[in-house]
Amino acid sequence: MRTSLLVCLGWCALVAQGFAQAPPPGAAVSGGGGGDYRSSTAEGGADRLFDVNSDSVDMENGSMQWKGKTFNLGNSRAMRMRFERYLSAPAAGGDMLKYQQLLQRIERLLSPGTINNSNYIANQQEAFNLLFQAAEFEVDGNNSLTIATQVQKIWNMRAEFRSLEVSKNQLEVIRKNQETVIVNRAEKIESANDERSSQPGKAGQPTLAKSSSGTTELGFRVKDEQRTQAEILARNAEMTALGLKAQVEFQSQMVGFLLARRYRHCIISSAFYRVLFKSGNQNIRVGAKEVKEFFPVSDFVPTLESIDTLAREAMTDVTLGMKTVDDLVKQGELYGAFERLQETYFLGEFEPSVMMYDQTKKRDMLELWRDLRELQRLGDEHDLANVEGYVNKVRGRARDFPGAAILSKVNNAINASNMAVLSAKQAALAGDTAKAEAALERATKIWPQNPAVKDFANQVVSRQDTLAQKIPEFDRMVSEAKWRDIFNKKLEFALALAQDKVRSDKLRQVVNRIGELDANIQKAQVLASQNNPYLAWDVIVETSRAEPDDLVLAKTRSDIAPLVADYARVIGVAEKLEKDGGEAAALTAWLQAQDLNPASPACGAAIKRLAGSLAQGAPAKATAAAPTPPAAGASGDEVAVPPRR
Amino acid sequence: MSKINPLVFALGIPFVVIAVLLVVVVGRTGGKFTNLSPFSLKSYRQDWTALQGNSYRLDCKVEQQLAFLEGKGRLLVVSPIVDRDKEMDKANLGRLPVFVPADSTQSFEVGQRFKFKVRLNRDLLLVEDLERF
To answer: What are the chain B neighbours of A590 within 8 Å (beta carbons)?
Structure first.
């Protein structure tokens, strides 16, 4: 919309500029082909009036914009097929140069600078004859024959016109004679009557009445004269109609050639018309409205020169377009060449330079055209995954193809689709089915073949089955305290138990528990790897109290145990002694362990704990009882442990 | 001028030296609780139940005071003084807790050496008498 507005504004400015720089009316404007045309329009500023940038081909609507005028090229499918047929067809045969020279010669024979009274007939005839030669060329498409037929018709019409003229002249002579006879007869009757009325009558008798003899004949004579007059008028009308008909037919054919983009034939028709018709019939009666559309100037009067100008302008554009195409192909810019060829083809598909274009180059563009169509199809179907491949393929053919912008848009679309799928998953996990459906629909609309959408759909479909299987499995594992197994299947359980709050909480606890356990195991492994096995052992021992059945922990413990055999043995003794009530002996063992691992928090804690306990339980006074040496037999292994203090 | 017989010097000086050495050696190795058996940490660790109720002499150095309860006593961590050159005594290296009841007025500092007369009250070494050296 904004572009259209800018174009309109640009046109207004250009129109004003065109008028400002236009030559005065009546100034000579040199045309191609040796013609010398005069124009009463502002065509001197035509180039500035035309918005060349608006030239474009609209495949969707089957139309083409040229100089602000829309050419209807048929429906889009037929248009595509025609262009594809052109690309795949071999170049038109024949001697192009000879054909063009032939047409130029016809133009020259009929041009105002060449034709005069002496060669008026001869030139027409020679040009007429050359039309048949031109029609023999393949590129002509027998359109020269159509012009020849039209010219022949005008000539026939002229003969008929002459015949009518003769007939009319004869009728006029007859009418003159009839008129003379009538006048004669009328005068005789009038004089006879005058004579009778002038003679004096006898006494007592009235004068003679007027005579009526001869009036009947006079009546018939008058009737004959009127009949002749009517016939003359009829002849006149017939001649006028005949001329008008010929004029209209010829102009129709001429405008038809222009709109069919047969510019050369249009120019030749125009030249014949100019010669065949009087200057009073040079105004455009047919297609005036269409021609006016090319010249967006108010009060513009279309003339033959207007049509001539348009045809020559189009031919120049086609020639320039084909040169551009060839140059772009040479530079390897096939995409640009393809676009220019497309525009040029639809502007002048019947121009010799277009029809004779090299077939090898056309084949290259045909391949590019097919790839572009496939790329467009992929885009229409939102098959984003394959677009990149085709963009690269097209880039391989045409290095100037603007693929980066396409890929950028494709990537954005892929990301948007994936984000929508993610949103759908989150909504589904949260139990918001409506939101999940909407997000999924959005993702599918952007990228219908998104694999993530398919995966998600499969997950949703199998979810009910999964629920039916996972809940009993979870309950069984909980009852068997298989925390590690639950942890390993946490994602599956999380999905399956999302709607079950109690089990979800339980799962969360298990995951946290095993997560903490794994963190401690990892901590122990790191300490062991840092040559600090005693501290690692402390961590293992401490963790083992909470998780005595975990296999991973047990394996880590068995891995570290050989490194701390003495320390582990002492701690084991200490724990056993403490358990058996020998707190002081246990404290001694803990002190021994601390000697091995001074930084051990476990040892420190045990020593502190036992010290307090021992101090509390110790007697306030030492008994002065005489020491009793131990009995020899009491030093065996099986000594009864005294009761706890 | 009376002259001291040189023989007196020849016999007297070695005698005095020997006497001094005897006093020093006897003073260090002997002293209190010489009648008690030395405490064996190794035996205690192996099986304290076999030692309970017995009294022993424990030559040790104070390492740490673990607990102190007013009116009750203190729990010390001591390390037995052993001859590190002797293979047998190496087994007695280490630390062990001893409880000093509150009736002892002795002060204890880390690093001080004591001779303890200890009795195994169940598995706890109870200090009944002591001497600093």
So the answer is: none
Phi/psi for A537 (5° steps) reads: -65, -40
**Would you say the C-alpha torsion A521, A524, A530, A531 has a positive or negative sign?**
negative
Tell me what pLDDT residue A637 has. Answer: 39
The pair phi, psi for residue A404, each rounded to 5°, is -60, -40
Is A419 in the same domain as A495?
no
Q: Is the pLDDT of residue A314 over 70?
A: yes
Q: Which domain holds residue A403?
A: 365-449
Q: Which of A585, A611, A619 sits opposite B123 (nearest CB)?
A: A585
Q: pTM, whole model, 2 decimals? A: 0.46
8 Å CB contact between A173 and A269: no
Q: Say which residues have a Cβ less than 8 Å from residue A212's Cβ, sequence separation at least 6.
A: none
Closest in A583, A595, A611 to B95, CB measured? A595
Q: How many CB atoms lie within 10 A of CB A402?
A: 12
Domain finish residue from A506, A530, A554 = A530
The candidate with the shortest Cα–Cα distance to A639, out of B96, B46, B125, is B46
Q: Do B97 and A619 touch (CB under 8 A)?
A: no
DSSP reduced 3-state for A451:
helix
B chain contacts of residue A588, beta-carbon cutoff 8 Å = 41, 44-45, 94-97
State pLDDT tens for residues A89-136: 888 766 778 888 999 999 999 988 888 888 888 999 999 999 999 999
Domain boundaries, chain B: 41-132
Q: Under CATH, what is the fold of the domain B41-132?
A: OB fold (Dihydrolipoamide Acetyltransferase, E2P) (2.40.50)
Which has the higher per-residue pLDDT, A535 or A16?
A535
**Spatial separation of the C-alpha atoms in residues A113 and A228, rounded to whole Å:** 45
pLDDT tens for B54-84 read 999 999 999 999 999 888 899 999 999 987 7
What is the least distance, in Å, from the CA of A573 to any CA of chain B?
A: 10
- The overall average pLDDT reported for chain A is 79
Q: Tell me: the pLDDT tens digits for A142-163? A: 999 999 998 998 888 888 878 8
Q: If DSSP codes are grouped into helix, strand and coil, which group holds residue B83?
A: coil
Q: Write the residue in B55, B75, B127 that is nearest to A614 by C-beta.
A: B75
Looking at this predicted complex, what is its ipTM? 0.81
Contacts of A595 in chain B (CB under 8 A): 94-95
Do residue A414 and residue A454 come from a single domain? Answer: no
Across the interface, whether the CB atoms of A591 and B95 are under 8 A apart is answered yes
A387 and A410 Cβ atoms separated by less than 8 Å: yes
Element of type H or E holding A336? helix A334-348
pLDDT at A491: 84
